[in-house]
Amino acid sequence: MAEKIGNDEVRYFIVAFKYGECGWDWPKVAIGLSKVDINWTNSSRSETDKIKMCQYNVYRTTDDHIHAESHFLDSLRNITSEKDKKIIHINAELVQNYSPCSECARKFVEFIQEIKKKRIIFSLTIKFANFYKCYYTLENDSWKRSSPSKECLDGLVKLRQNGVTLQLLQGEQDWEKFVRDERFVEISEKNRTRLLEMATSDERKEREKVDKIILKYIETEALSKPKTTK
Ligand SMILES: [Zn+2]
Fold first, then answer.
1. Which residues neighbour 16 within 8 Å (Cβ) at sequence distance 6 or greater?
2. Ligand 1 centroid to residue 66 C-alpha, Å
3. Cβ atoms of 168 and 211 closer than 8 Å
4. Cα separation, 80 vs 39, whole angstroms
5. Separation of 55 CA from ligand 1 center, angstroms?
């Protein structure tokens, strides 16, 4: 069973401000909750003899500034390099407090290229609660971005173009499910109520509206720009 996150780390998901505002309230680390389904056969057996495995893990940015996503990719690499397994299919879901930064996006794309060469079918969904380094203002129902966010947005566009599904962790249903997910979250009932109130506050709801517009922008860019794998 996976290690779990408690009250403080659940808080890292629930930020109500725009990125860069109220800096004290923005977590310094990324947390990724992963569910990985793997289908494999023993190298010596026939492909019809499939074995299924499901792993739950919590990844965190470490003191040496290695991001949670990097640790996640390292563990996937370990699985795919085990000599006795012939991996057929990997289906991974990551739930994160932040969207991946441009460097992590590049690492994901690199991994996707690697795994294609190994002929492993791979699908990845990243669901995140906050855009990382996305500075924006909302004007007349559309958002204006300023230059610091460009790299991070481009990284997310690249992920989309390489088949990664991006989703937002937002709305009452999502948050309810999140704080009640016993595979990953361990909090008291009192804290759960308090955290749910924060996650569904008016301020956070306003922020989530803008996040939706940004995600739509990313989807459109991914379709209109030439595909990049670097
Ligand atoms: Zn990163």
1. 198, 201, 203, 204, 207
2. 8
3. yes
4. 11
5. 22
- Whichever domain contains 159, its CATH number is 3.40.140.10
How many whole angstroms from 101 Cα to the centroid of ligand 1? 4
Tell how far the Cα of 128 is from the centroid of ligand 1, in angstroms: 13
Indicate whether 230 belongs to any domain: no
Taking the C-alpha atoms of residue 35 and residue 47, their distance in angstroms, rounded to an integer, is 24
**Structural domain total, the chain:** 1
- 34: Cβ contacts below 8 Å, ≥ 6 apart: 55, 56, 57, 58, 59, 72, 92, 93, 94, 95
* CB under 5 Å of ion ligand 1: residues: 67, 101, 104
Whether residue 64 contacts residue 122, with contact meaning beta carbons closer than 8 Å, is answered with no
Tens of pLDDT along 91-139? 999 999 999 999 999 999 999 999 999 999 999 999 999 998 776 666 6
pLDDT digits (tens, 9 = 90+) for 49-101: 788 899 999 999 999 999 999 999 999 999 998 888 889 999 999 999 999 99
229 domain-assigned: no
